[in-house]
Design a protein that fits this description.
Strand content: under 5%
Order of helices and strands: HEHEHHHHHH
CATH superfamily of the largest domain: P-loop containing nucleotide triphosphate hydrolases
CATH class of the largest domain: Alpha Beta
Number of domains: 2
Distance between the termini: 41 Å
Helix content: 40-55%
Radius of gyration: 28 Å
CATH architecture of the largest domain: 3-Layer(aba) Sandwich
Structural class: mainly alpha
Number of strands: 2
Amino acid sequence: DKVLPELIEPYELRAAKLREFLEDVKPSLRYEIVPLADPYGPAGTDPDLRCLVVSEETRRGGEAVNKKRLENGLPELVLYEILLMKDPEHRQNEEEKISSSSLRQRLLGTLLRPPRQDPALPSRPYVIGLTGGTGSGKTSIARLLGQLGAFLIDADKLGHAVYVPGGPAYEQVVAAFGAEILNEDGTINRKVLGAKVFGNQEQLKSLTDIVWPEIARMVREQIKEADAQG
């Protein structure tokens, strides 16, 4: 549940940075840096350890390590608690301590590597796809992009448009699912249609095989329109 886990540095790089830091602090000490394959790490099983350094927020983890050591027949470790350095310039949505999660959040919007050149893709128009679950922020991001001059294509609205009488998928959907999905005015009752397809993978595939190609075609038409507008 880490914030932006895709921006966490690889283990090898993190270990190298840690080793460089520790050797800079006191090169005469011997350091053994190991990856943690479980919540306890070597602290739960190493009989030679005597002390575990914790912070206020990781003390409970230290206590859990001691519980595991007692279960393994080992003596408890001394828990030495240190204070965490505060970040005097932390933002309102960031942690008060100096935090790698906060640093990763500040990377949002930073181009980490140049866009991959694909000769099969035209250089323009430049298409950005926004996807995500309900409440993930698609509408807010789309609004911001629109304010910057982007041409917005709402696939949800196109999805509704294919169902209307005269729409590109209307006749096919009615033919496939019957007149019982229609309201008195001839429009498709999406609740009735939904009850037919959700929970039935075969029926759902029949519907998406009709609707999705039409939505994709409408999207391509709108991309051409955006290109024509510059």
